[in-house]
Design goal:
The complex is a heterodimer of chains A (312) and B (313). With 312 residues, chain A is mainly alpha-helical. In chain A, 71% of the residues lie in helices and 3% in strands. In chain B, helix 1 (2-33) packs antiparallel against helix 10 (244-268). Chain B has one domain (2-225). Classes of the chains: A mainly alpha (312), B mainly alpha (313).
Chain lengths: 312, 313
Amino acid sequence: MALVPVLALIAGQFLPAYPLRILDMILLYAILGLGLNIIVGYAGLLDLGYVAFYAIGAYSWALLASGQFDIHLPFALVLLIGASLAGLAGILLGIPVLRLRGDYLAIVTLGFGEIIRVLMNNLDGVTNGPQGIARIDEAHLFGWTLSTPEDFLYLLVAMLVVVFLFVWRIQESALGTALSAVREDQDAARGCGIDTTRVKLVAFALSAFIGGGCGVVFAAMQRFVSPESFTFWESLIIVLVIVIGGLGNPFGALLGATLLILIPELLRAYADYRLLLYGMALVIIILARPRGIISRAFGPSWLMRRLGGGKC
Amino acid sequence: MGALILQQTINALTVGSIYALIALGYTMVYGVLRLINFAHSELFTAGAFIGLALAGALGIAGHPTGGLLVGLITFVLVGLAGVSVEIVAYRPLRGTSRLAPMLSALGMAVVIQNAVMLIGGRRPMIYPSFLPSGVIDVFGAVVSYKQITIFLVAVVLMIGLELFVNRTNLGVRIRAVAENAETASLVGINPNMAISLIFFIGPGLGAVAGILYSSFYGVATFTMGFVIGMKAFTAAILGGIGSIPGAVLGGFLLGAIETFGTAWMPVLTGGVIGTEYRDIFAFSVLVLILLFRPAGLLGEHVSEETRVYKSDF
């Protein structure tokens, strides 16, 4: 993990803009994957509307730092606001729906994602409708201007490290244990005195918080947002990132994001056949490794044990 | 006012028939495998395009009797496609986890959608109507023969399915496997056979719905399956997923909610909520229903303790 920032620094210095942009997208999806993993991987709840939180974050930056309402707040503040708003939305959505189980929860979150998208499309006075919001401010963070893919690479790497450590520590904490109990058997978990609804709500909020933060960075990176970026397909990509990489494993999110962003780029030469081949590749990967490429057991804790020679 | 309500009811029945036909495919698959078959909506699109190609090849575009033949062949072709999808992409994953087949279904949806695009083209296609044209006036409401035919075709197919599932030997096997695949295999029923049958009938019905839908609106696009599929799935949940009468009820109910909601919301809210929120109605209703009646309208009420699945995914 310590190697990642070093590699990123080297990559940032030497790679041209196009691969750097792809690298940025990989990192962004890895962070989104880490966030969604809290819900899907740790708590075992399928959220098919994760993109809603991402959209809330993106629109926070688009509305609070552009000519739309002529508000120009600093990036760090909006990052906090966007993530918090998304977290709040997560709690508000979670309170009624977390009593539901499995598939119903999946469908309600899917519906929530669609509702957010339709709202963005139709609240013309606020979101500018399908045209989206263009000419968003350039982001400045502590006197450092974020404009090139290289700048965002450093920001995203920093975020990735923070989120990675955070998510890993959660996994090892009492909350993480409670979450895995909920995942394996809700009734037994309740029997052990775990307030399952509360635990799920915390997971939901944390996950939404991370999604919102990613949204802010995405909007700052693109400097343009429109409802088109936040379709159901986007939610599915994030679910695929963690399922293909390995559910409940932070390394899995990194690997999954790399594959899911890289494969379409590599297939770019095939133009019209690209998505067809992409779909086939997804099916083949899932058929070959139904439980994800990296198993849950081989997480960061396992790596630390290996490196520490059996200690830890 | 009476005529307006009647008109809306007829519109609701038309769109509801189509939702119901597609919802049947989702609900049957879910009832047996507890799998959301994301590829179903793309098979609906494929059905519309295959119907179009057949009509061109046979030279019977826009003819109602030809339409019957086209519908039949399309049913069989798309049904076979559905069976192959299950064998290739879902069967090897049975018993691994619940997420894996679902995401595999998603991959298949992408594959089918793009295959349709590559063969049928990116641009919307003008669709010849296989339905009789003309309108009649019923108490001031304008009813087209198209709408009547769509409704009748849907009702005939639904009754046929109901009879097939409840009155035939194969139907008993399907119900037995849906109830409990292991127990069914103990009494000599091959679950794979029943599952293949479901994957033949469901997509077949969806394909017919695709032809009806495109004939009604006069256009077919390779992306049209997604939104319709989502709504049909909503309808299946609304009625209680896994239940065949539930899917039919859910389909018609969703058609009604959407049609009346879209027509009256702008009036009731003084124009604040306009028709552009049409697609939200479906989901808002769904969220509300699930909160108060999680098993859907006709779904079985399963107590927490008797759930086979302790964990969600």
